[in-house]
Amino acid sequence: MIGKYFGVGVGFKPEHFQNIMESQPDLGFFEVHAENYMGDGGIPHRMLGALRNQYQLSIHGVGLSLGTMGNLDQNHLHRLKSLVDRYQPALVSEHLAWSSHDEAKNLLFLNDLLPIPYTQETLDRVVEHVDQTQTTLGRQILVENPSTYVAFSDTQMSEIDFITQMQKHTGCGLILDVNNVYISANNQKMDAFDYLDSFPTHAVGEIHLAGHAEDVDDSGERLLIDAHDRKVAPDVWSLYRHVIQKTGEITTLIEWDNDVPDWPTLYHEAMDAKSLMIELGADTHAAQ
Amino acid sequence: MPLSKQQFSQVEFAARLFDPEATAPNGVVDPNGVAAPKRYSVYKNNVIVSYLEALAAAYPACKNLVGEDFFNALGRAYLTNVPPSSQLMILFGEGFADFVANYAPAQKIPFLPDIAKLERAWRLAYHSADIAPISAEKLSALPPEQLGDATVSFLPSVALISSPFPVINLWAAATKMQTLDGIDPQNGETALIVRPELDVNVHNVPKDLADPILAIIHGETLNHAAEIGLANNDDFDFSAMFSLLIQTGAIANIILDTKGT
Q: Given this model, what pLDDT does residue A284 score?
């Protein structure tokens, strides 16, 4: 059985705070980027506290850099721990990616989710970092499959093998970002349905859905960009349906981080996910 | 372990991200194994754009004053000279005012560094710890005869910015994209930034109070601050200064000198 079901949620944006408080939407949880709440006080914490009083929270880190070949930044890990201790979220997650490195003791932060080659060496590093994170936080984390634009000639194993082994060695849970699967399948010339069918879905604690943009690569071929700036694409909904048909209910999030829409539009996307689960007989006991 | 020629290096990958001229590092390819500079440039673009957006969010008045093209060129130079070193994007922009002060193309806008200082103080105040101003009860319980030797602890949001330019008026106009016409550029202003509750307030402090308030912020006693005020101006009014600090909610606590007496 897949991790506890928290229903359907959306990424929280401060501009929606008033709408949420007034309309008390029928959602299972809100997700926030951990780093946006690592200030000491003020409005961000006031809003997060108010949300936490009424909903479950998912704290989604974007800056821990699990995929760094250097060391995890202990300061940042402890900031994450303070936040998790304070808000006691239902879910804590991070990415299979790197965003900083600590060459010569100077941390350089790159503010993007950068890809790693899939090798024994990178696997060992990621496993070590996931272990460290789970030990420090005293709880399981979910690790998200990436969207990628490049490949590496060093890569020795498939992304699925890498994620499967990482999960097995650390006991972590997984976020299955279906939009990322669609993007990477296009960009890496894989079959998205094959990817989903071989993904270790038994460990998935949350699904992410988001919109993407379209570009072209060096040879003029379609290159998809993980933009989080629009509605979930029909093809991504099809992949989502495929997963839910196989697995039943899974906690599901709509992410919309850029060109943020008005509240009704975002809420409508979340309700589409909920309807799909109800239609497939999956949403049987949504957590309140 | 010796590095093979193709071995992926995060250091190399990272170093090239900020260099507009740089090509893709070795071993970064497309799914057919062919070098893929355009694919790599998606990351370069993501990183630069995200930082320029973060800088614009942190310094909106500066951006409005200089325009988008100038601001982005300034931002790129800042990123190259002050490589980002924190995961906390909400506090991105440290040292920007100092960088602007030394950025040659910005010399024609002499007040830009002070606007940047004000915006930085505003941002830090917005995210500062929630500490309440001193209560009326506590204040009235203080023995007046001991106040002179007392020092003051301020809310963590408090900052004082003294400028030879009308920094508050310029900042307010630029934030609202209003014209700067009618603002006398020679009319210096001192800004006191305080967040007593959730909203950040920017107060225009009378010029002659700047030095004594700064002295108190730096830990001097109230008596010493009064001496500084009087040295600058015979009409210095201590109680006006003190009530300004109380009314703005800047003071967290008043610490009596227990060992001096």
A: 61
Helix axes of A159-170 and A120-137: crossing angle, nearest 10 degrees: 40
- Amino acid residing at A237: W
> Is A43's CB within 8 Å of B126's CB?
yes
- With CB atoms and an 8 Å threshold, state whether B27 touches A152: yes
Please tell me the CATH code under which domain A8-279 is placed: 3.20.20.150
Yes or no, beta carbons of B42 and A223 under 8 Å apart: yes
Q: From the list B10, B30, B83, which residue is nearest A68 (CB)?
A: B10
Which of B87, B94, B124 to mutate against chain A (most A CBs within 10 Å)?
Answer: B87
CA angle A95–A98–A102, rounded 5-degree value: 140
- ipTM summary value: 0.94
**Residues B92, B3 share a domain:** yes
3-class DSSP state of A101: strand
Same domain for B224 and B98?
no
Residues on chain A touching B40 (C-beta within 8 angstroms): 149-150
What six digits make up the tokens of B209? 């109070």
pLDDT at residue B3 tops 90: no
Is B257 among the domain residues? yes
CB contact under 8 A, A112 and B156: no
Domain-located, residue B225: yes
Confidence category of residue A105, pLDDT binned at 50, 70, 90:
confident
Residues B134 and B78 in one domain: no
Assign B243 to helix, strand or coil: helix
Smallest CA–CA separation between B96 and chain A, in Å?
17
Whether B154 and B226 map to the same domain: the answer is yes
B176 and B237, same domain (yes or no):
yes
Indicate the residue of A41, A46, A218 with minimum beta-carbon distance to B129.
Answer: A41
Range of the domain at B77: 1-109
The answer to whether B90 contacts A44, with C-beta atoms less than 8 Å apart, is yes
Residues of A in contact with B55 (CB under 8 A): none
Q: Are residues B99 and B179 in the same domain?
A: no
User: Which run of H or of E encompasses B62?
Assistant: helix B60-66
Domain locations in chain A?
A: 8-279
The single residue listed with the structure tokens 């990123």 is B79
What pLDDT does residue B15 have?
86
- Round to whole Å and give the CA distance between A117 and A158: 10
User: According to the model, what pLDDT value does residue A283 have?
Assistant: 65
Cα gap A92→A31, rounded to integer Å: 9
Q: Structure tokens of B111?
A: 């007040």
Instruction: Mark whether B21 and B134 lie in a shared domain.
Output: no
Residue holding tokens 């030990």?
A135
